[in-house]
Amino acid sequence: MVAKAGLDGHDRGAKIIARALRDAGFEVIYTGLHQTPEMVATAAVQEDVDGVGLSILSGAHMTLFPEVIRLLRENGAGDVVVFGGGIIPPEDAQKLKELGVKEVFTPGASTQEIASWVRENIKPRE
Amino acid sequence: MATSKQQWLNGPYRSAGERAWRFSTVSDLEIEPLYTPEDARFDYDETLGNPGEYPFTRGVYPSMYRGRLWTMRQFAGYGLAEDTNARFRFLLSQGQTGLSTAFDMPTLMGYDADHERAIGEVGREGVSVTSIHDMERLYDRIRLDQITTSMTVNCSASVILAMYLVVAQRQGASWENVSGTIQNDMLKEFIAQKEWICPPEPSVRIVTDMIDFCCRRVPRFHPVSISGYHIREAGATAVQELAFTLADGVCYVEHALKRGLKVDDFAPRLSFFFNLHNDFLEEIAKLRAARRIWARLMKERFGAKKARSMTLRTHAQTAGVALTAQQPLNNIARVAIQALAGVLGGVQSLHTNAMDETLALPTETAAMVALRTQQIIAEETGVANTIDPLGGSYAIEALTERMERDAMAYINRIDEMGGMIRAIELGYPQQEIADAAFRYQRQVEERVKTVVGVNKYVIPEEIPLPTLKIDPAVEEKQVQRVRRMKRERDQQAVKDALKQVAEACRSGANLMEPLCEAVKREVTVGEICDVYRAEFGVYKDPAWI
Description:
Strand content of chain B: 5-15%
Number of domains of chain B: 1
CATH class of chain B: Alpha Beta
Number of domains of chain A: 1
Strand order of the largest sheet of chain A: 1-2-3-4
CATH superfamily of chain B: Methylmalonyl-CoA mutase
Shape of chain A: globular
Radius of gyration of chain A: 13 Å
CATH superfamily of chain A: Cobalamin-binding domain
Helix content of chain A: 40-55%
Shape of chain B: globular
Oligomer: heterodimer
Radius of gyration of chain B: 24 Å
Largest sheet of chain B: 9 strands, parallel
Number of strands of chain A: 4
Largest sheet of chain A: 4 strands, parallel
Structural class of chain B: alpha/beta
CATH class of chain A: Alpha Beta
Number of helices of chain B: 23
Distance between the termini of chain B: 56 Å
Largest interface: A-B, 37 and 49 residues
Strand content of chain A: 5-15%
Helix content of chain B: 40-55%
CATH architecture of chain B: Alpha-Beta Barrel
Mean pLDDT of chain B: 96
Structural class of chain A: alpha/beta
C-alpha cells in the first residue's frame, strides 16, 4: 500500500512509486490523498497488505509515521513493514528508523532501488 | 558565402560529430543544433512588438527593469504568526521588496489549529492562521497599504482574504489603496497542488465571488494568481505548464463574464505565476510565448480593449522540484541560473528557493543567500540594463513560436472537451501530468537525463547541512490560544455570522461581505470551511496512478 497521510497534497512521487511497483509485479493499492493515520491503518488491515509505504512532504513525518506504526500494532498488524519517504532530513530519518520505520527514501531515490528494496525486505505475511 | 542551414547540417556539422544521440530540453522538446534566420521568420510588429506594446512578447511594460526592477518577493512562513512576522521583517531589512506568505497545511486545507486533522501539522509547512488575531500578529508593524503582500492559499483563500482586508482596515488603510495578491486558483488545485475542500464548480464560484468583490471594492488587489508553478512541479512539461495555466485563465475569464462583469474591468487584475525550471532557453521562450498567447486570447477571443487587460503579468519561482537533497550547495548554482531565466524572460516578481529546501524549510542563512542571488543578478550582471536582450535571437524566437503552437494545440483540445472544468472531471490534465512525470523519472533512471549529484557526479558521503527545526511547542501554544479564543468570544455572534455565510452559499450572494463580518466576530478558518463542506460537499481524490 502506498499511502499519503496527513494534509499534504504532493503526490507526484507516491504515484510514480505506486506505478513503478505495479510494473515491477507487485500488487499495489494507492490510497489517494488526505488519509488520516486511522484510515491508513484500517485500510492496511482490511486489504491485508504486507507493507505500507508512507509519503509525507509536509514536515509532519515525526507525528504521522509513529502514529501509523502504533495503530498497525494496536490492530494486530505490527508485522506489516512500514517504509516511506518525502521531505525528511537525515537526522529525522535516523530517528524514524529507530521508531520502527524500516527504510526512508528521500529525493533522488530511484524506483529501481525502491522496487529491489521492497522485493528484499517485504515478504508475504504469515 | 554562408551555406543554407540544410547544407551546413549535412556538410560541416555532420562531419564534426555529436556527443549524444539526442538533444532535448528538460521537458523533452527536441532542440536543433542551430537556429538561423530561416527558423525565425517573423514580422516584428505583429509577432514581437516593442515592450509594452501588443502582443507584449518583449515585455508587459515600456520600461521594464529600466524603469523598475522586478519585485523580490521571497515566500516565507512557519510556526506562529509572530515567528513569520520576524522572518518577514528580517527579509525586508535585507532588501526584499515584497512579501509572500506561506501558510501551514491546516490553514491551507481549511482546518483550525485545534482540529484533529491538524495534529503534527501546525506551523510545519508554513504559518498557522486560524483567526483574525493570527492575521493581525502576522502583519504587525507591516503597513498593508505600503508594501504589497502575496498570500499563497487556495481553498480557504476567501476566509484569508476577508481577514487580510479587515486587518488592513484596522491599520487605517482604505481598501482603495490596498494592493497585493491572493493565489486563489482552484483549477490548478484539482490538476496539481491538490488543496481542496469542495468540488470544482462551487470552488470556482467562490473564486468568482472574490474576483467580483475585488473588482468593485479593492480595485488594486489581484484576486487570483493563475498558476503554472504547481502544474510543473507535479511533473508537467513546459508546454503543458503553459497550456494548462492559460486554459485555467480562460475558464476564470469565462466565469467572470458569465457573472456579468466586463472584461476590461476585471482582466487588468488577473495575475499569473510560473515555474522557472532548469532548461534556460526553454523557460525564457515559455514566458515570452505566455505573454503573446494571453494577449491574443484576451483581444481576439474576449474582445478586451484596454492594453492592461491583455498583459500577462507574472510572478515566478525557481523550480523546487529541480533541487537535490544530495550535495545541496549545488542548488545555489541551479537557483541562480533558473532566476536568470526568469529575468531574461521578463517576470514582474521573483522568488528564489533556498538551497536546503529538499531537506526542510529554509534556515535564515539559506534564505538570505537566495535573496542575494536576485540582488546579484539585478546589480552586478547587467542583464537589467536593457529590455528583452534575447529578443531577436534565432533560437529564442523559434522556441517561443514552437511553444506557442504546441500550447495552443492543448488549449484547443481542452476547448473541444468543453472547457477546463470538464477536462478536470475527465482527468485529462491530471493524467497528462502523471504520464509526463513518470516518463521523466524513467529518463533520469536510464541516465538519459542527468541530475548532477544524483545520477552523475555522486559522492559517497554527504556533508550534513544544518536545517530549520520547528519547535513542537509551537503547536501546543497555538492550540491553547485557539481554544481560549473560542471559549471567550461571543458565541451567539459567531453562530449568526455562520448562518449568514451558509445563506450566501445557498442564495449565490457574494460571500465576501458575510465573510468579513464573520472574521471580525472571531469566526475561524475551519468553522467557515465547515460551512463550505456542509453546503457544497467534499471533493475526494480520484486517486488515479
